[in-house]
Write a structure and sequence with these properties.
By secondary structure, the chain is of the alpha/beta class. The protein has a domain at 497-623: GMP Synthetase, Chain A, domain 3 (2-Layer Sandwich). The chain has 18 helices and 32 strands. The chain has a seven-stranded mixed beta sheet, with helices on both faces. It has a five-stranded parallel beta sheet with strand order 7-6-8-11-12, sandwiched between helices. The chain has a four-stranded antiparallel beta sheet with strand order 23-24-26-27. The radius of gyration is 24 Å and the shape is globular. The chain binds coenzyme A and adenosine monophosphate (AMP). Belongs to the ATP-dependent AMP-binding enzyme family.
Length: 629
């Protein structure tokens, strides 16, 4: 039996042995005597009597082992432009001071800190500072509007908000502080304090109770790592659900550290001293797990890049960073490669750089389409590895375990389920489907370490959203199939979540923004295939009778409403006025049928359709979209 099969079998057959063994990758102040506590199922607790500190594991222990002078973090901003390096010792000391500053502002164990920062080292420092004192961070992606930030502030109820004065997008400075001010006007919760990292590109005005990072962090008394229970919360990360209200995915400390440290070796084959770069954003789960925690937990060097794959300044940006820092493994989203391919299809920019250090490219966030896979493989000449996971799962559900047993790549497949993930394909009744048949992807409980513990403050929603559809299983919301060799192909969401340029968005939130326009009677938003972004949202609106709306103005107003309420990242460009929306007799809009038509599939509408002519009339519009490669 190969190393992968053996590990997989053991992880499901004897999870105690498998995960207690993996727990040795972490330094615990109190080593757990048990791996799994299932007494409160479906709320499982991993390493219930273990105690540790994540920041100690990510920083101090490497310094104590003599690696204080190794680079921990390299910041490269193509936007400023600027570069900065932190050794493990420097990063530990800076994190300790930031932790001391937060403590002096009254932040303690279990208190929440909302972080609204772009890709600057201080974002990573704040996250690690929270974990150092047992506080719970909740990072909010900078591309969201004030309203989205307000919803998250109200849900997380932070004691302190740490923000940057601005983010830098191509051709535009995004002033974070006015967005935060507006969010605080909209929210009913008030944090005690706000700390602002002032960036020269747009300094913010500070009000009473608000502090400049420079005034509170550098002079703060350093805080030591505080041991926390393995089952204590580490962070909350909001993600889009099928309704407009985001879900606060809650991750707990001990199992998170174990799973990420294990994945770094087994999945990515990254060891201490390696230079690793994840080209994502700290506002997404990929950033949490693989920009911040995993690389530092194993003593690697993490590259933090502020910039885009193209235009900052050109399509060679990624290759410059790889060559400049000797990146060994790169993790990015397929959409980033597609934009590079579009601008530089023959790799003229790529040819300018020495990419000799690069030994593998990992892709996630959306399906790696075979064409992009082929292009990247040809251009880079290294293994290009797709792997599948979600904010909820925290690390790969299915991957090619490069450090355990590299497996042959099949383009279009995310390879095989990782240890701990008992993946099944079922029909809508929960009946398991044989190889070759596409169905809903579900995971048998318990989920392994590193997966969400619950939704912050809402156990009921956790059960209802993920565990109630198929008894004893977690519903991923994705569809896919296994082949005869046990390889998993993930085809896309079966719900109203869409994935735009690797950004996960809720169509419900976009619909709410469109519906707020006074001329709109009702609307539906569906994700339609896009050759570069994977999907883009397309809004269909029905106007109120007698609505006095000039078509050109209305389109612009609706796009502006989405930008105002959800944020620029929703990237709504296309809104079409239609006479009616197809519905069932009970009034449910047939989004799934429209989605299928837009994706080029001729799905039969349900028999309960109210007026088939409405759907027929929309078919030419829905089929207009260019198919995904
Ligand atoms: N702060 C503020 N605004 C942001 C933002 C941020 N952090 N990120 C994106 N935006 C804005 C963009 O400026 C753009 O605004 P515009 O409409 O005024 O031009 C809008 O949101 C849409 O952005 P996006 O869809 O990201 O398009 P883009 O052209 O800026 O970039 C990519 C395209 C492919 C480079 C980019 O989407 C990307 O890198 N995606 C990968 C995402 C990722 O890493 N996901 C995690 C899974 S690995
Ligand atoms: P997020 O929670 O933002 O990471 O988005 C998770 C969703 O992105 C998944 O449910 C999938 O729909 C999609 N996704 C992520 N990675 C992949 C992949 N490798 N293949 C197919 N879909 C993916």
């Amino acid at each position: 039996m190969g190393a992968y099969s053996e590990a997989y079998r053991l992880s499901l057959g004897d999870p105690e042995r498998f995960w207690l063994d993996a727990a040795r990758l972490i330094d615990w102040s109190s080593f757990p005597t048990r791996a799994l506590d299932d007494s409160g199922a479906p709320f499982y607790r991993w390493f219930p009597d273990g105690e540790l500190n994540t920041s100690y594991n990510a920083l101090d222990r490497h310094v104590e082992r003599g690696h204080g002078d190794r680079d921990a973090l390299i910041w490269d901003s193509a936007m400023v432009p600027a570069r900065r390096r932190y050794t493990y010792r420097e990063l530990r000391d800076e994190v300790a001071r930031a932790a001391g500053a937060l403590a002096s502002l009254g932040v303690g164990k279990g208190d929440r800190v909302v972080v609204s920062m772009p890709m600057v080292p201080e974002a990573v420092i704040t996250m690690l500072a929270c974990s150092r004192i047992g506080a719970v961070h909740s990072v909010v992606f900078g591309g969201f509007a004030a309203k989205e930030l307000a919803v998250r502030i109200d849900d997380a109820r932070p004691k302190v908000v740490v923000a940057a004065s601005c983010g830098l997008e191509p051709g535009r400075v995004v002033r974070y502080k006015p967005i935060l001010d507006e969010a605080l006007e909209l929210s009913s919760h008030r944090p005690d304090h706000v700390v602002v990292l002032q960036r020269d590109q747009a300094r913010a005005e500070l009000r009473h109770g608000e502090y400049d990072w420079q005034d509170v962090v550098p002079g703060a008394a350093p805080a030591d790592p505080v041991p926390v229970a393995s089952t204590d919360p580490l962070y909350i990360l909001y993600t889009s659900g099928t309704t407009g209200k985001p879900k606060g995915v809650l991750r707990t400390a001990g199992d998170h550290a174990v799973a990420l440290a294990w994945s770094m070796g087994a999945v990515y084959d990254v060891r201490e001293g390696d230079v690793w770069w994840t080209a994502s954003d700290v506002g997404w789960v990929v950033g949490h797990s693989y920009i911040v925690y995993a690389p530092l937990l194993v003593g690697a060097t993490t590259v933090v890049y502020e910039g885009k794959p193209i235009g900052t300044p050109d399509a060679g940006a990624f290759w410059r960073v790889v060559s400049e820092y000797g990146v060994r493994r790169l993790f990015a989203a397929p959409t980033a490669l597609r934009v590079i391919k579009k601008v530089d299809p023959r790799g003229a920019e790529l040819a300018k750089y020495d990419l000799g250090s690069l030994t593998g490219l990992f892709m996630a966030g959306e399906r790696l389409d075979p064409e992009t896979y082929q292009w990247a493989s040809d251009m880079l000449g290294v293994p290009v590895i797709d792997h599948w996971w979600q904010t909820e799962t925290g690390w790969a559900i299915a991957a090619n375990p490069r450090g355990l047993e590299p497996m042959p790549v099949k383009p279009g497949s995310a390879t095989v389920p990782m240890p701990g993930w008992d993946v099944r394909i079922v029909d809508s009744e929960g009946e398991e489907l044989p190889a070759g048949q596409e169905g809903e992807i579900v995971i048998r409980l318990p989920l392994p370490p590193g997966a969400l513990a619950t939704l912050w403050g809402d156990d009921e929603r956790f059960v209802e959203s993920y565990l109630s559809r198929h008894e004893g299983f977690y519903t991923t919301g994705d569809s896919g199939s296994f082949d005869e060799d046990g390889y998993l192909s993930v085809m896309g969401r079966v719900d109203d979540v869409i994935n735009v340029a690797g950004h996960r968005l809720s169509t419900g939130a976009i619909e709410a923004a469109l519906a707020s326009h006074p001329a709109v009677a009702e609307c539906a938003v569906i994700g339609v295939p896009d050759p570069v972004k994977g999907q883009v949202p397309h809004g269909l609106v029905v106007l109120k009778s007698g609505a006095d709306a000039d078509a050109a103005d209305l389109g612009a107003e609706l796009v502006a409403a989405v930008r105002r309420d959800v944020g620029p990242v929703a990237a709504v460009r296309d809104v079409t006025v239609v006479p009616a929306l197809p519905k069932t007799r009970s009034g449910k809009i047939l989004r799934k049928t429209m989605r299928a038509l837009a994706a080029g599939r001729d799905e039969q509408p349900p028999p309960t359709i109210e007026d088939p002519a409405v759907l027929e009339s929309l078919k030419p519009l829905l089929r207009r979209t260019e198919p995904h490669p």
